[in-house]
Structures
1.
Amino acid sequence: MDKQVLLTIKGLQIEGRSGDAWHKIVKGVDLTLHKGEVLGLIGESGAGKSTLGLAAMGFARDGCRISGGTIDFDGINLRTAPEADRRALRGKRIAYVAQSAAASFNPAHKLIDQYCEGPVIHGVMSREKAEADAVELYRRMRLPNPEEIGFRYPHQVSGGQLQRAMTAMAMACRPDLIIFDEPTTALDVTTQIEVLAAIRDIVRQFGTAAIYITHDLAVVAQMADRIKVLLRGDEVEEADTRTMLAAPREDYTRSLWAVRSFARAEQAPASGTPVVSVRNVTAGYGAVDILKDISFDIHARRTVAVVGESGSGKSTAARVITGLLPPRRGEILMGGKPLPASFKARSRDELRQCQMIYQMADTALNPKLRLRELIGRPAEMYLGLKGRALEDRIRELLALIELEPDKYIDRLPSELSGGQKQRIGIARALAAEPALIICDEVTSALDQIVQEGILKLLDRLQSELNLAYMFITHDLATVKSIADEVVVMQQGVVVERGPKSDLFANPREDYTNLLLSSVPEMDPDWLTRLLAARGGNA
Amino acid sequence: MTDIWRMIARRLLLGLLTLFVISLVIFGATELLPGDLARELLGQSATEETLAALREQLGLNDPAPVRYWNWLTGVLQGDFGVSMATQKPISELVGARLGNTLFLALYAAALSVPLSLLLGVLAALWRNSIFDRASNAMALTSISFPEFFVAYILVLFLAQTGIFPSMVRITAATTFGDRIYMAFLPALTLTLVVTAHMMRMTRAAIINLLASPYIEMARLKGMSPLRVVLRHAVPNALAPIINVVALNLAYLITGVVVVEVVFVYPGLGQLMVDAVTNRDIAVVQAIALIFAAAYVLLNLIADVLSTITNPRLMHRR
């Protein structure tokens, strides 16, 4: 490449403090970025992607320090430059787009005020000019009502729109470099496409260089010219996107590529009495109906995946089944018998039959309880186990989720990894010996390799214990690997349901088709082709 | 905007209900006090006939609910009854004292609120610095000593040397400038007592927010540390700060008994102490009710301000 070099990082080392000791987060990484080039940084969590991205702005989070190497941005040494000089670069020549726009916009100020802050304080343009410019960028980011949307507060704007508004804000001073830190990870697949397309267009229009951080290979394939793979603070390999996708050199890269190979054989449609039947349920909060006349069945040894965008009513359906939200109309049958609408009216045995596993294992486990108590409580409460029998059962459950009982039984949740915590969530559900387990986005907070382990475990437990699963997810790759039946929801209505193979092969409804076609593929031309096929605003 | 008016109306009604309950408690508590008021007034040597006549005159023979009703209807018309000890109408007695108490409270608030907000913001900005530690240590020291001790220390250093008076003689004729001068020591004592609480809360509320993603975003936009704190953290920390300020203002009105006694300041606290000593029950009841009203009103104001400063409550989706 004969383009001018914009950013050079050499031998960069970053340390983080845990207690009194410093440990290395980034261990001597080199990076070169040319003007107008997009570099993809990928790796699992803990790989040091975000830390490296922030270091490109000469910034280290509290509790972290840059301990070695050089960072040269357009002739300025960001390690030795005074803080005031670095501050003058940030927002003006190097901008940042964060993962969660909802959390990264200040809730106390209107979008336009936050947009104008950068250009005005950095002396790039006047407030009037900046406001006019904001409208123009909002329009280019394809935000609805570009003249008006800036005068709203962040909580009045949807997540996908906020992410685009944040990209517009990053563009405000027309920077030379933007760091995108997982900008679409928190979005639905259908929204993700719009944001990806808008980001890609605006970066190309202004010739801005970018570092695009993500753990999603298919996404990085659409966005980046070159890809660098990181593992625990070390570079694994780097190549241009097409070469990397076609012929990864390292084993680790290949393992990332191959992750989604797990797919279990689809079970034949079941007959007989379903474990749980949702019958014509209408439910909601206040005056609003979130669910409108939905029905579906879940049979023993079958997994029903409930898919849809956020706000489509997936989790509300789970709340109705568990009795947390009594429906306005309709009923829930368990083993053919109607269940009381509210959990308060259900017997202990009826409660035992239906257990939940949550998305955030971190917040779903009491941090003050040891695993012995976390798993033991439901066994004690529902099944009356005590003493020796209880101890044996806890050990049996730990073995079942593939954690060594002697080593783990007295640990606290904080002494476990993310994947292990989710396994404890599973063991806690199993302790009640339920017929149905509702899994609410249980893998979406985990790395792909860890996800795979959890899915395999759930699959094994299902065939050993005759469980029925209701699998709530927005991740269609997970659906492909584990579901028998799929229920597609949109705005509180079941749009389509049927066996997985049918649904994926010939979706009948437009919405199902939209959802399926929005899942990014590893082909770098996928986004371009898709946008062209959808009416070409690429 | 109609939402906020509706909320204020609802909270006012709730406040009145709270006051009603408090009036029951106050009346009930004074009922439980031992002793016979008539005998207290006439002394041990009084005859049974004169005692009976006085009881009749004071309405002490009526059943408690009737006496409560008479008291409450009087209060609602601004008539708190007559002081037993001085035979003056209580509203007259309390009126002037309430003015003095409010003056001292506002004086102390005018010193302490800006001071503690400034110290809190600076301590958050320079957290873990020498300044942070020193201001924290000083604030904690001043809050750790009993009020009367702080007051006597100030008297020792500032009154014994003749700079400020140690006794506050305020009458209706005293000019504003003289009041400010004479009430300086009590106001300073109160400032030292309440500043620590407000300052530490301001500091904690701001520091609590500094780990938020939007604060990191502001720093990554190249904003200066001062601007990050003032523009991005403080607006989101207002609700807890407003509440702790309101709580301390209420304390300045109701909790100044000791300080008023030390400086012989003619406020409500002094009056209450005197009334308790004299078994002047009607005066005690009136002052207790005024103190309760101050708490309810200040908390109402704090709630309304917290709501107004929160865009999520002011601008619905």
Note: DSSP finds 15 helices and no strands in chain B.
2.
Amino acid sequence: MSPTPEIVFAGTNGGALTEIADYEAVGGFQALAKSRALTPDDVIAELNASNLRGRGGAFFPTGRKWSFVPKPDKIDKPHYLVINADESEPGTFKDREIMLRVPFRFLEGSLIAAHAIESKHIFIYIRGEYEVEFEVLVAALEQMRAKDLLGAVTIVVHRGAGAYICGEETALLESLEGRRGLPRTKPPFPAIAGLYASPTAVNNVESITSATTVMEIGGAEYAKLGVENSTGTRVFSLSGNVVNGGNYELPHGYPLRDLINELGGGIADGRSLKAVIPGGSSTVILTADEANTVTLDFDSLVGAGTAIGSAAVIALDDRCCMVQLAVRVSQFYEHESCGKCTPCRVGTKWLTSILQKIEDGRGTQADMNLLVSVAERINGKCLCPLGDSDAIAVMSYFDKFRDEFQAHIDEGGCPFHGESSLDHLLAPVAMHIALPEGKAIDGLINV
Amino acid sequence: MSTLSLYDEIQEIRARYPESLSAVMPALQLAQERSGGWLPEQAFRDVADALDLTPAYCLSIASFYDMFRLEPIGETVIEVCTNISCGLKGAQQVLEAFESELGLKAGDTTDEFTLRTVECLGGCGWATIVAVNNRHRLHVQAGDVPRIVAELRGSEWKEPDEPDA
């Protein structure tokens, strides 16, 4: 199956549109002019017609999200637009490339969204590790200010400081308000009481960038791309044991096997495909057989018992030990748990410990049962899905590759005998911290 | 480099936000940048003073986020991503190559270098990702490490099998 023309990356010819004149030469800012000539309700109607759904992972219809923000005459508070550029789901690196290559299309979409929800204040929360991307955005904004494209709208680019949890929208809002990134209880939803307890729309970078195209070509035209329930294109982040990792913008409904075998150049090093994580590390794993039958859209992946998530496709070859994979994924969630909800704070650590015990050959049959028990005690019992993600991902490896887990128990060790690709991978949560010689720590921190 | 004092620059940051508490993270980032890449006790006092907060509150923020450093760090910070995608492409071998080339263990700090592993840096398709002072290097393989370390030390790199002149 051949990919359709690019939407998000249109006009780049494989390069980057970081000069405003180059972006204008490919039709840049016409969608903004068109949108500003329309009423906010008409812009939202166009988005609804496109059926654009959120690209951050939740797949919530973007137009509907905007429509939930109360009209200014209904509430005596400022409205805020917050862009979630805190891309941190393992496997995902699409928003970064969007910001690097089409910063103006992204910023144009931000201004369109601000118009739609009648907001004068935009905050872009970008993950702290994206330093170059931050610089590109700041430079792009300078060029837009020089052309007076912002109008009465202010845009503040706010840098995160290293916390996966801040990709969760309410944790992001807490962080933006100057607190630790702990998720809030919902309701109230951000549309009613978000940033500074005011009406707020929180949108992902790719959703916002796609909104520019929706307004450019029209919602009905956009809806023709992709498949039913999953319209438009998606930037898929392909990684793992493929020959050509990278971002691929494809229409929804593209076969997963074609992404891996044709665009991705197949499995590297002459190995064979063992499994695929289809939508970021939080999603249920697919066996190679399952992966060969699905297409990359919401319905097909839900039908296969998983999710499109953040569209991050990780291909694993036959060298990967599934228990080691489970250990490493669980270590990630353990490291990133904010600690607010006990099932997640304690449960992620338990999952890691039990999995490590099995991997080390110290596991018993009772540990297999304990693993299931702990996962069940996390799932659905926290304010946000972080702990669930650990439990769901790990249990999917356990369910689909149980023989491999059992072999660890039966053989009293890892059946890969040190030959797995993830052998002894050192996670940050397992790293010791040493200080420079002769440097004492100040009293405030020394405990 | 700005000529403004830390206090004045934090006031400028503060003015960008409807509520001043929002400025605490950017203020700490600035203070860290001006304190050699980590946050000593005085930095917390300075930020607290500039934003009418307590040093303890500022520390509670810094301790939550991975990029704030509560201990001294080396002049060059090398961070190797060891999440799944990088792991599948040999991140552990890259890490071990840095350990052996620098004579350090992951987590160690000397005046010259800090070496640590980090969670996903968002470059999975270009694995392995190594951040050197926050700038990402893509497609790093274990065999590239001696060259990278030589470059960071400012010494000329020689191929190992090349006879000495």
Note: Chain B touches chain A through 64 residues (CB under 8 Å).
